[in-house]
Amino acid sequence: MSEFATEIERRTLALEQPFSIARGTATDTEVVFVRIEDADGLVGIGGAAPTRHYGETAATVEAVLPDLLEIVEAVGNVHRIEQIERRMRESIRGNPAARTAVSIALHDLATKRLGIPLYQYWGLDPTETLESSYTIGIDETQTMREKTEAARERGFGTLKVKLGTDRDEEIVRTVREAAPNVRLFVDANEAWTPKEAVERIDRLAPYGLEFVEQPVPAENPEGLKYVYERSRLPIAADESCLVSADVPKIADRCDIVNLKLAKCGGLREAIRLIHTARAHGLEVLAGCMTESNASIAPAAHLAPLLDYADLDGSLLLAEDPYDGVPMPGGEIDLAGLERPGTGAVRSS
Ligand SMILES: [Mg+2]
Predict the structure, then answer these.
(1) What is the pTM of this model?
(2) What keyword terms does UniProt attach to this protein (predicted)?
(3) Ligand 1: distance of its center to the CA of 116 in Å?
(4) 5 CA distance to ligand 1 centroid (A)?
(5) N or C: which end of the chain has fewer CB within 10 A?
């Protein structure tokens, strides 16, 4: 007899506005929700945010989830998450967003059974929080100025600007003019060559940027090293760092790693990645895809372990079927979360 009732739901979520990065433009995002209900009627909610860049689509997630849920059933205990994550990783290669969705649902269910929020399960202080950046996608320069002004009006004090165009300096100058006092991150999403990256970073440094994310392609680790050794600004690795085992390989060529749940395959692995990065003297940023609170809320609970957060994925959606951890003006309000679990609850 089955211990758990499970449900898989694939959804296409419209974005508030078309969102462009160096690799392309999206107008919507396909996600998959998974719900695991135990014999007491408690429900754990998880979300998958698959991206083709890492070999996944909503269809592959949907196809692999029954096999992953069979592992949950075989273990039969929602508190044995380390074992479940290991068995999922060993028996289902790749598919990190799908595995993460199950891990999130298990953490949500386990902490609901205990009646505590996820940060408490991890022994974290909810007041040790930080502010998430809000991302300005690539657009006409004037439109990027307007988006920056709108973000300032919504109270965001930290912005991340997508680069990788032939007018990167003009974009950063314009955003800086529109928001002189915000903290500013930039992300080239692999668009530059190593030489180009060093030149551009030289020109961008005077605009007061905190770091430059993924200047060169992940397939060019020597290029990343070349940039890191010459850069006037800290370098963050995103596409170059997926799981904890990647950290030692890039530790001598970046300052910051960008942890994303959709890349790493689970929340236990996410915490392992954070501590591996710390052991290598690196700082940690938690990022996200354009995705629902069903998969962003658990990342917000990691806030006390982070140096930077870019968890604005739900804010970029026209409508999110789930509410999550409140983030007024980007401030991750973990202490304001008055429910157990990840905090993800159905809103529509
Ligand atoms: Mg990035």
Answers:
(1) 0.97
(2) Isomerase, Magnesium, Metal-binding
(3) 32
(4) 36
(5) N
